[in-house]
Amino acid sequence: MDFETLKEWFTLKNVLTLLEDYRSFGIVPGIVLPLLESFLPILPLFIFVMANAAAFGLWKGFIISWAGACIGSLLVFYLARKVGQKRFFAFLSRHPKVRQLMNWVERHGFGPLFLFYCFPFTPSAAVNVVAGLSRVSIQQFALAVIFGKMVMIFTISFIGYDIVSLVKQPLRTVFVVIVVFLLWYVGKLVEARFSFAEQEERS
């Protein structure tokens, strides 16, 4: 199974079925799915969070997704920092755009990391690695992950905890579509703002 086929398999219906099939494992599958997304960014975190909220309820689903996403991000950060001098990571850190983002994170610390993690469509997996390769402190990174992902995951959980109503209440479906679009749009604005600010500082 190639990556594209794997990505297409992870629909909301399939993930809900997966959680139901492994219900005997309790909350473990719900934690593992968002944790894996930290390592494999092609996986749909948005779908995992919505499925957890629908399967476990709003608050429990939110906490499960939040725990998995935070643990995954911290593990990626730790691994990138520990093996940052190895061949692949050394090559990656010399890439101009990666170096640019590393410099930005090192200078501004908590702020840009927090904003990146607030939005579900920003490349958080890449940010995890870049932060690990940078000199940002573990304390700053952990706080940004914990609070940024809290905002993002609760928003998605709120959308996903009552999937049935999205079908029965068209107005709510329209509202959800608007919220998803705004999250995507604002996330792109944040990315563009950071790139613009970095270019200004370099000029």
Radius of gyration: 18 Å
Q: N-to-C terminal Cα separation, in Å?
A: 46 Å
What's the overall average pLDDT, rounded? 77
Classify the secondary structure makeup into a structural class.
mainly alpha
Oligomer: single chain
SSE order in H/E notation?
Answer: HHHHHHHHHHHH
Q: Tell me the count of domains.
A: 2
Strand elements, count:
0
- Major sheet size, sense and barrel closure: none
Task: Please report which band the strand proportion falls in: under 5%, 5-15%, 15-25%, 25-35%, 35-45% or over 45%.
Answer: under 5%
Proportion in helices? over 70%
Uncertain stretches of 5 or more adjacent residues: none
Morphology: globular
Tally of alpha and pi helices = 12
Q: How does this model look, in words?
A:
The chain is an all-alpha fold and 203 residues long. The protein has two domains: 3-168, no CATH class; 170-202. It has helices at residues 3-9, 12-21, 28-39, 45-56, 58-82, 87-93, 96-108, 110-118, 124-133, 138-160, 163-168, 170-202.
Summarize, please.
This is TVP38/TMEM64 family membrane protein. It is found in: Cell membrane. This protein has two domains: 3-168, no CATH class; 170-202.
Secondary structure elements and pairings:
Elements: H1 3-9, H2 12-21, H3 28-39, H4 45-56, H5 58-82, H6 87-93, H7 96-108, H8 110-118, H9 124-133, H10 138-160, H11 163-168, H12 170-202
Helix pairs in contact: 2-4, 3-4, 3-5, 4-5, 4-10, 5-9, 5-10, 7-9, 8-10, 8-12
Main location: membrane
Family: Belongs to the TVP38/TMEM64 family.
GO cellular component, one term: plasma membrane
